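Render this sequence as a predicted structure.
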Amino acid sequence: MTVILLRHGRSSANTSGVLAGRSEGVALDAAGRAQAADLVGRLADVDLVAAVRSPLLRCEQTLAPLIAAHDVTAEVDERLIEVDYGSWTGRAIKDLLEEPLWRVVQEQPSAARFPDGEALAEVQARAVAAIRDHDRRVTDQHGPGATWVACSHGDVIKAVLADALGTHLDQFQRLFVAPASVSVITYGAARPLVQCVNSSGSVALPKRPAKEATVGGEA
């Protein structure tokens, strides 16, 4: 089963230099709305059978044109919500750079817990559980080889990718996930297969399950 991890399009918070977190009412800006519209063409060759999203507005707006084009509805899963940044929510990022915790977040994220908020290790645990739960459900409903989309947030998607890559959470800051980018994972019986990361172009997937990676490549 293949999941397309979609980060929401550019929001007003992305350009204001503020850590939006779970603040209500953070919407896509004009560029973000254009990115959402472009997703229809970028994923036109993909047969999407299901969609899941974070409950936040910017994810709802990003996914809306895509699910309309594919005639599917989006299920909301709280486990895909943005990180709870606690008392850091709404603060200017330039000010947070001076906080001792900022260095921990960058260099040892597995040890980071935001004040009055969530630990990044907890973020990874809930997000990975959500993706794997939905993947099993989609498999049961549509059979092997189907493709579905999950729309979430940058750090959440990076945490899921780190798990799929077999990489420790402390390395997840080496991954970059831009607004409106897609990353693709196929969950196989033996291991996850990461097909792409941070793609901003068109995505075309095989109509059959991807083969397990082998020495020498695909036969």
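Summary. The beta strands are 2-7, 48-53, 74-76, 147-152, 182-187, 192-199. The radius of gyration is 17 Å.
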